[in-house]
Amino acid sequence: MNKQEYLLAIDKEIQKADSIVILRHELPDPDAIGSQIGLKKIIEATYPNKTVYALGEMNDDLAYIGTMDTISQEVFDASLIIVNDTANTPRIDSPYEVNPSEVIKIDHHPDRDVYGKISYVDTTASSTSEILCQFVFNENSPWKVNEEVANALYAGIVGDTGRFLYPATTTVTFEMVSKLLEFPVKISEIAYHMITNPVSVSRLAGYIYQNMDISENGVAITILSQEQLKEFGVEEHQTHGVISLPSTVEGVYCWCLFVEQPDGTYRCNLRSKGPIVNEIAANHGGGGHPLASGAVVKSLEEVHQMSEELNESSKKFLASLNK
């Protein structure tokens, strides 16, 4: 099916449902919340007689995009389930068990799990929010857009493009943003929410700049322990605000922030300016985009193993530049 056919197929399922639940991945980022809230507001604007819920755990720092709902198991079981921005089923954030074969999937990540009775995946899109823009601004789209939709989707696009710095930003991205800006989008307010950090996170940023380990292959590694998080007074989810810091350092081509979890595992955030990192993430049970991926590893030994793999990837990348 082409994009128009997918849109109509998804819309047909929505029309048949009285109640719709929209889910996304755990530990959400602006695109996860933006696409979730954006789709909720699209459906509410298009079909006012339908009830739409957005579910999942969320931290206060993303509440400017929208808030989550609470429903019963009975309501959940009677609802159409749509999952946004989630490549594999273990990462679906839901208070109740999800049947992957019965959901609608909308995503821009490379498939880790092929699931959903309807699955629309466009890896050329900068974000799932951009995909929803393409749907709603399609010439023959039945869906409606309003100020709430525009603000949520704009936040999602800005978040996943790193404020339009990442390679996934395309002419289509800017075309969709230009259409969103026909509505009263709170550009400055959204930007300030994204760039403003608590004092504790700012102090952690200083620590990372001073202590990141930079290899001869341009790989920057930072490991944060539970003890260090407590020392700085930083919650694990707040470390998202410091992931991109090594990108500003000359000579760094890829980097990873390893954050120790209470159970002793490490959440890995891999980013790159060229070396491929999603294959490395996949080797350790994770995944994502070629230049931005994540995983969870079981031990400090595996952290060092992943660091070695990043160095090998960066070494090959640098060799290719010198050919």
From TrEMBL:
UniProt cross-references to Gene3D superfamilies, sorted A to Z: 3.10.310.30, inorganic pyrophosphatase (n-terminal core)
The DDH domain, residue ranges: 19-157
Domain DHHA1: 231-312
InterPro entries: DDH_dom, DHH_sf, DHHA1_dom, Oligoribo/pAp-PDE_c-di-AMP_PDE
Superkingdom classification of source: Bacteria
Pfam families named in the record: DHH (PF01368), DHHA1 (PF02272)
Single GO molecular function: nucleic acid binding
Protein name: Phosphoesterase RecJ domain-containing protein
